[in-house]
Amino acid sequence: MAARLSVYPRSFLGLLLTGFTLVAVPLVGALAYSAWHTEQLAEQSRSAVFSASQAARASRSLVNRIGSIERLAQQMSMLGDPELALDYDRVRGSFKQVAAELMHLPLDDAQRAALAKTVVQEQALYDRLAKGPRGRHDPRLIGRLTDELAENAYEVLAISYLVADREVTRLRANAEMVQRQLILLVLFGTAVALATALILSRYIARPIAELDGSIRQLGDADFTRPITVRGPEDLQSLGERLDWLRRRLGELEAEKNRFLRHLSHELKTPLTALREGAELLSDQVGGPLSPPQRQVVTIMRDNSVKLQRLIEDLLDYQRALHAAASLEPRAVALDVLVRDVARSHELAMRAKAQALSLDLDKAEVEVDPEKLRSILDNLLGNAVKFTPGGGTISVAAHVVGGGAGAQAVIDVVDSGPGVPAEERDAIFNSFFRGRAKASGRIEGTGLGLAIAREFAEAHGGRISVLPQTRGAHFRVTLPSKAARNLPVAA
Question: Which pLDDT score, from 0 to 100, does residue 290 have?
Answer without folding.
Answer: 79
